[in-house]
Specification:
Helices cover 65% and strands 0% of the residues. With 72 residues, the protein is mainly alpha-helical.
Length: 72
């Protein structure tokens, strides 16, 4: 690749990806804390069903406990 091709590729890249020069005018951390406090920790019913199946399976076949621990 010669110098002319490198310059052309460099100019095309500069056109395609202009530099980011804008600054945020506020701190986003307080807003993030408010959003985290607003959310409730709701667990979907499907997660509870999977947990119930896991516990039931461990009671029915306790020999599967080492296999489960191995895969964790």
């Amino acid at each position: 690749m010669n110098k002319q091709e490198e310059d052309r590729i460099q100019s095309l890249l500069k056109q395609a990806m202009p530099p980011v020069s804008h600054e945020l005018n506020r701190d986003l951390w307080p807003q993030m804390l408010r959003r985290l406090q607003q959310r409730s920790a709701a667990v979907p019913w499907f997660d509870w069903a999977l947990l119930a199946l896991l516990v039931l399976g461990l009671f029915v076949a306790p020999s599967s406990i080492p296999v489960l621990l191995y895969h964790l």
